Amino acid sequence: MEKFLLDYDWTVLAPELTIAGAAALLSIIDLVLKPNRGRHILAWMALAAVAAAGYFTAIRLGAPPYEILADTYRVDDFARAFKLILLTGTGLVFLISFREFREEKGFAQGEYYYLLLTALLGGMVMTSSADLITLFVGLELLSISSYILAGIRRRHGESSEAAWKYVVMGGVSSAFILYGMSFLYGLAGSTNLFTLRERLAEAYNNGYESFILLSFFCMLLGFGFKVASAPFHMWAPDVYQGSPTPVAAFLAVVSKSAAFAFILRIFLIAFLFLYQVGPGKETVGWGLWIVASLSMVIGNSVALKQLRTKRLLAYSSVAHGGYLLVPLAALGPTLFESTLYYLLAYLFMTLGAFTVVMVVERESGKGDLSAFAGLSRRSPFAAAGMALFLVSLAGIPVTAGFFGKFYILINTVTSGSADNPGPYWLAAIMLGTTVVSYFYYFGIIRMMYFRPPQMEGKLRVSVGPAWVIGIAVLGTLALGFMPQWVLDFLGTLDWVSAISPLKQGPVGQ
After folding, report:
1. How many CA atoms lie within 13 A of 278 on its CB side?
2. Are 429 and 297 spatial neighbours (Cβ–Cβ below 8 Å)?
3. CB-hemisphere CA count at 13 Å for 495?
4. Which tens digit of pLDDT belongs to each residue from 146-179?
5. 67 three-state secondary structure
6. Which helix (H) or strand (E) holds 210?
7. CA 470 to CA 465: how far, in whole Å?
8. Of 412, 434, 437, 432, whose CA–CA distance to 424 is shortest?
9. Mapping DSSP to helix (H, G, I), strand (E, B) and coil, where does residue 131 land?
């Protein structure tokens, strides 16, 4: 039955419409404000819009899935859970940004605030898309906004270099994704993910398996760039180092989470049949296992040699991208729950760590690890928070990071068997590389507590960063001390609908 625009329940798009309206309003207000006027009101308006969108998303958790716009846009628990992660991460980034650029000359504060909103909107579109076209539109909206944000410090050479490298590598990754999508459309004659799954399975059985596998690996390569997984991670250290620290935190948490939602949507819908056939299952499985393993090994190994803090966190992000690929590679029984739990833990511990790095860099004027020397004496609060975030990233009990890795390991091991030993190898590599990560994480802790300070006086932590550090500490501890509560809640959400087409009827049709 054909439906018109007014026939849809547009309230399901309240979060996206809130963010889009706020971004448009902020851009207009920024244009009419005088150049010498402060833009702090824009930051508060953007934060209010993020909070409102979070409320609209949270109240619909557990509601039946709904499809809109000719079944190209799907609002289900999968999308809502990822949107809450994206909104929380962006809200915390706004909090640490309030005073960061106030005294910097030539910084386009207005553009910074609404570009963060457009990047967030792109990520939200990616989480709900059930069509290749809307997926790519969301991806490019997020990517283009991120390119500009990386180079928004126009007077800084490192920032311009970061933006240039990001644009080039991002363009290459988009080209591979589009190339892979073109094969899918050519074989199936549709861009809808659920239609693709049905028709690609037929094409695979009719002798087109090589083209389908080629499209899969082209898209895997493109996604590898987006989530900074090895060996496609070469842009991440330079971009994180050159970008403003709040932007680097946004890329490490929000952009990566949106990209994983993108990966799960496509691989578990359009390519789900590949996991169920003999040769295809082995090929796809080994492809994902290799990328996950390389990310864990290279990310943790290269981080050992880093002397600059943001580059170290960039390689740490590469390693954590490998950990997050493990559930998809193993395809265990708690894939969604373990992935969402780890992303939530990763949000708090990574944003908290970047916030402390921002405060220390601003005070010391340098980004080396030596800037953390004696931090425990200059700011016990910041040092204790950073130590907690680092031990959580390392996976030390009882922290959010420990239980995040524990649930991924359980999910991985339970999916292995004598005929399928790959998950066991993944679990072994994950354990081994986690031990390696202790050396560089605890190296920062050693600097904070066992080295004399290089500067005199107390470290000033302004209100916004102090709030973010406090929230991140509470989130990391809560997930560490009450993991079962969070996992039980995630278990109540309807994950099956994320990979299942809706039945014809009054809901969503």
Report:
1. 1
2. yes
3. 17
4. 999 888 877 777 788 888 888 988 888 899 999 9
5. strand
6. helix 209-226
7. 8
8. 412
9. strand
Name residue, tokens 């290279």. 298
Distance between CA atoms of residues 218 and 231, nearest Å: 14
Residue type (1 letter), 478 = A
Residue 460 is classified by DSSP as: P
Phi-psi region of 76 (alpha: psi -120 to 50; beta: other; left: phi over 0): beta
The values of phi and psi at residue 88, to 5°, are -65, -45
The 10 Å Cβ neighbour count of residue 115 is: 22
Yes or no: say if 114 and 41 are a contact pair by the CB < 8 Å rule.
no
Q: Rounded to a whole number, what is the distance in angstroms from the first to the last CA of the chain?
A: 8
CB 288 within 8 A of CB 328: yes
pLDDT tens figures, 421-468: 777 888 899 999 999 999 999 999 999 998 888 777 788 888 888 999
Distance from C-alpha of 40 to C-alpha of 285, rounded to nearest angstrom: 49
Look up residue 307 and give its two tokens. 């002397």
Q: Which helix (H) or strand (E) holds 264?
A: helix 256-265
Per-state percent for the chain, helix, strand, coil, to nearest 5: 75, 0, 20
- Residue pointed to by tokens 């009719």: 206
Torsion region of 102: left, alpha or beta (phi above 0 gives left; psi -120 to 50 gives alpha): alpha
Beta pairing partners, 192? 131
C-alpha angle 112-113-115 in degrees, rounded to nearest 5: 65
Q: How far apart are CA 299 and CA 234, in angstroms?
A: 11
Alpha carbon distance 355, 314 (integer Å): 14
Angle between helical axes of 309-330 and 400-414 (0-180°, round to 10): 30
425: nearest Cα among 417, 463, 91: 417
Task: Report the DSSP beta bridge partners of residue 74.
Answer: 67
Which amino acid appears at position 261 of this protein? A
Residues contacting 82, CB < 8 A, separation 6+: 127, 257, 258, 261, 340, 343
Q: What is the DSSP string of 33-56?
A: S-TTS--HHHHHHHHHHHHHHHHH
d(CA 197, CA 312): 40
pLDDT digits (tens, 9 = 90+) for 347-404: 999 999 999 999 888 887 777 888 888 888 888 899 999 999 999 999 898 889 999 9
Amino acid at position 126, single letter: M
Please give the DSSP secondary-structure letter assigned to residue 68: E
- CA-based nearest residue to 431, from 224, 225, 293: 293
- For the four alpha carbons of 240, 148, 81 and 217, in that order, the dihedral sign comes to negative
Query: What residue has token string 């910097």?
Result: 104
Q: Give the whole-angstrom CA distance, residue 227 versus residue 321.
A: 7
Q: Is 420 exposed, middle or buried (0-12, 13-18, 19+ CB in 10 A)?
A: middle
Query: For residue 75, what is the enclosing H or E element?
Result: strand 73-75
Sign of CA dihedral 140, 123, 328, 199: negative
